[in-house]
Amino acid sequence: MESPAPKAATRPCRDLVIEVARTTWWVGLGAAALAAEGAARWFRACAEKGKLVEPELCEPLAKLREKARAVADQLRGRLRTVAEKSAAKPAEWEARLEQKLTGVLERVTQPLRDELRELEQRLERLEQKLGSTGTAS
Hints:
Blueprint: H1 10-88, H2 90-136
C-alpha cells in the first residue's frame, strides 16, 4: 500500500512549520550574536573601569609592600649585626653567661650559707652546754 499523496491543503501547514522552524533558528542565531556583542561590550567596559580604578587600588598595596620591604631590610640588618657580634666574640658571651650564672648562684646559696653558719653556732652552744653539764656531774 502506498501512502496517499499529500493533499494540497496540508502543504500550507508544512510550509508554515518550516517557516516557524526557520524563524526559530534565526532567533537562536540572533540571540547568540547579540549575546556575543553584549559580552564584548561588557568586556571592554570592564577593562576601561579597571584602568580607572587601578591607581586607587594598587597604590595602597604598593605602599604597603614598600613598608614591608623596609621592615624586612631592618630586621635583616639587625640579625646580621647580632650574628656578627655573637660569632666574633664567643669567649665574651661565655664569660658574660658565667658571670650571670655565678651571680644567680650567689643569690640562691647565700641564705643557705647563712643558715649553715647559724646552725653551726647553735651546735657549738649546745655542745658547750652539754660539755659544761657533763663535767659538773
